[in-house]
Amino acid sequence: MLNAITLMSLKLAAAAPAGGEAKGETPFPPFDSNHFATQIFWLLLTFGILYFLLSRIFLPRIGQTIEERSSRIADDLDAASRMQKEAEEAEKSYERALAEARAKAHNVAETTRQSVDAEIEAEMEAADAKASKAAEAAETRIRAVRTKAMANIEAVAADAAQATVEALTGKKPTLATVKKALN
Questions:
Q1: Pairwise CA distance, residues 116 & 88, whole Å
Q2: Phi-psi region of 32 (alpha: psi -120 to 50; beta: other; left: phi over 0)
Q3: pLDDT in tens, 74-107
Q4: What whole-number distance in Å separates Cα of residue 103 and Cα of residue 51?
């Protein structure tokens, strides 16, 4: 675009007579050497005002905004770091509490198991004692029956021997003779 403007200016300059004021036309004011001094004055004045506005008003505000933003970002990063540490501490605390709860549950389970084992053992001992008493009672009854049977065996053997001798010899021996022969 700059080339197009420069090209048009050159065409106008070429079309204008060498004196520059042919046919009553005045040259384009920025190119007129009569206006150079005022143009430089206004250029310096405008540049000075812009420089003053930028250096005293706009740039300090922009710098302050950038500084505030930097400090806010730094504060946010610090807060995020602090919150991360707090989260890590909370996680460690949670893990400790969980480990303590597991240990407590294990202790409760172990205590319960021991008490149940003790109850089972006590019941087993009671059942064993009851069974041994029943076994002793049964042995006593068996001994009594055996003693009674043994006492009867002599009488039965004597009767059987008496009957056998009578059957073989035809004579009935006396019970005292048979018992004497059996002992």
A1: 41
A2: beta
A3: 999 999 999 999 999 999 999 999 999 999 999 9
A4: 75
